[in-house]
Amino acid sequence: MLAEDTSPRRRTRPKGRKQQILDSAATLFVQNGFPNVTMNAIAASVDITAGALYRHYPNKAELLALAIRQSLDSFPRIDSTSSLDEALSLACDAAVRHRQLGALWSRQLQYLPDDDQAELREHLRDINRTYLALIERYRPELSREQARLLSRAVESVLSSPGTHSLVLPSAEYAGLLKTACRSLCDTHLSENAGPASPSVPALEPVSRRELLLQKAIQLFAAKGVHATSMEDIGATVGVTGPSLYTHFRGKEDILAAALDRATQALWLDLGEALHQHSDARQALQAVVRGYVRRTHGRLQLTSLALIDSRDDPTVRTRQREYVREWVALIRSSRSDLEQAPARALAHAGLAVIHDVSRTPAAFDTSIEDNLTAMVMAILGCAD
Q1: What does pTM read for this prediction?
Q2: Alpha-carbon distance 309 to 319, whole Å?
Q3: pLDDT of 26-69, one tens digit each?
Q4: Going from the N-terminus, what domains does the chain have, and what CATH number goes with each?
Q5: What is the DSSP-derived secondary structure letter of residue 379?
Q6: What mean pLDDT comes out for the span 222-226?
Q7: What are all long-range contacts of 114-118, with beta carbons under 8 Å and residues at least 24 apart?
């Protein structure tokens, strides 16, 4: 009779554990935002201990960088001989199949160390150069700046499925995005009449609280909320220490006030557009133009719409209500469109405005006209 083997069993790791961790981390980053995800939460999502997770990955920044690299690699490589239509078909199919990936690089990239950001942004520029070459071949009459503007907007449309939770059949959604991208690439663009007039020194309010709020909005737009501290905000107006907290209890208090300011500004613009126009398409164009103007204004109020609002149901509700007004105007302008596709197009148009506004390039005098025309083309409501 053989003696019973009582030696401890070595637990074998499931195959693909590292990839399982990476996939789960990417999902959590998209759902909750990078700052709100802990290594413990990632470990729990794949039923391992935090210690086991650290044996695979030293920190969550490395997980985010790898997730973004993987997402970029998942998009199809476009052959230089492909037509624009062929390239858009492949890209839109991939964008729908991997819809969380666009949200990774459009919203979470900012949380990486500078070196990783620089590397991944160069990867994004490589992808952009492909679309740029295809657009220049398709529309040789465009200037390099105009073609670059369109190629950047195509990227934004492709990343837009990651900015919302709307569910559409994959084939329908891919077709919707392709039509939007195709219309975008056909947009008539105004000629650049020269660089925008240099800004003059702006007058500032005498109210210290209002000045702090305005400076905070500018910092949130430029650096992101997560990277902006109360000290950063106070330093812009020379306020430090306890006196800073006599105006706001903390950064969350400032953020709430900034979001309220942005929401009210957008609703005022929308109300004005509805009041001045009886035609839905004209009203929609006025709303889009107002949104573009708010994005490129000194306070960049609409950039606050990018703020992760998962922990604030009031903000989420306000954002949904505002998008619903876009959807209503789109559907009034297009009798062929149901609610869900109209909402998907609204998010695509908003993504284009936000992404172009963050492009580190000088805006010329034609940008307001061109961005408005591009978004109207994406919505299928161009003249």
Answers
A1: 0.84
A2: 9
A3: 889 888 888 889 999 999 999 999 999 999 999 999 999 998 88
A4: 17-63 (1.10.10.60), 74-184 (1.10.357.10), 208-378 (1.10.357.10)
A5: T
A6: 77
A7: 116/61, 116/65
